[in-house]
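Changelog-adjacent note: as of this version, every example in the card shows the full chain rather than a window. The one below runs 394 residues end to end.
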Amino acid sequence: MKVPLLPALALSIRAGLATLHDSIRGRRNRLLQAIVMLTLTSSSLPIFAALPVERIKLPPGFHIEVLSDDVPSARAMSISPKGVLYIGSLDGHIYALELRDGRVSARHVIAAGLETPAGVAWHDGALYVSAVSKIVRFDAIDTHLNDPPRPAVVIDTLPTEDAHGWKFIALGPDGKLYVPQGAPCNICLKDRDRYGLIGRMDPDGSHYEVVARGVRNSVGFAWQPGTHELWFTDNGRDLLGDDVPSDKLNHAPRAGMDFGFPYCHGGDTPDPEFGKGHPCSAFTPPVVQLGAHVAALGMRFYRGDMFPSAYRDSIFIAEHGSWNRSKKVGYRVVRVTTAPNDSNAHQEVFAEGWLQPGDKVWGRPADVLPLPDGSLLISDDYAGAIYRVTYKAP
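Full-length structure tokens:
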């Protein structure tokens, strides 16, 4: 592992300052994010330190290493059949890492100046990128990493608000492009056909429809192998205390289901302002309550052969970590198992150590992605890094 020119602390400061610059131009939500990142930086590692992956605790037999520490504000990930890893960011860039034998053979910046392009999705030779109010597409990008084409606009009529405006996107097994539209607030009642939902459209931007309502802010979803049914994480509201409401892992086996926002949170917490007349029993409950303020983001089903067989079909979830809780929680990756009928759901910690004693933080998981070889990638927008988790029987 190389010692980065800009280690975790410096990368965090750079990302925070870049976000602050955008905020000055009117993006208030990014200003809040910059303040949070800079606050967390005050308890980070000394400058010039390499990323201390030896602090990450994993189950026996698992090993974690830094795949790259040169991906500032790394968020969602998607990989092409040729082994090119594409990474969205919060700083306006799209990165591409060419992978070979579990290592990075080349690094590229294929776009800059986009508006919070957190989400990336690969489909039919093209890379789709979310940019708040629009989705753009880079055609034949695998063969143009050194001379990226100008992006084509897929759709540009999505909400323009920055609050919960950055989007995780993915192509579903139905061939549709799924795009969340988060609530533009902590808690508010807006048009439920436009905000607080997950929608889908054809890859060309046509035939848009709402799939799930009452979703405050989903920043990760995937489809269950075999059933092809949608599962997604959802972040609960703030300012109801340290321990309520819980973030959620939801299951949407069909379109049209309502998950409660802004009337009910966590499946069991009526909103004090909007909950009257809307009992939680009227909405679809979560399969798993993940915990208050853990900030559950990217999630994927594991189908690889490298990990022990008990891990097959498990759900891995990146918990970005709390920003306003009196004692920090999250900053880890958890594993969820459940029976086919959603019964006996269970979560356990898979990887932790980015949060150290004394609430000291040096990393924040943002997404997870299984690779074809069975290893698991974890993105970290705080340290600007991608980690690779492998397994060898002890």
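Structural remarks: The chain has one domain: 54-391.
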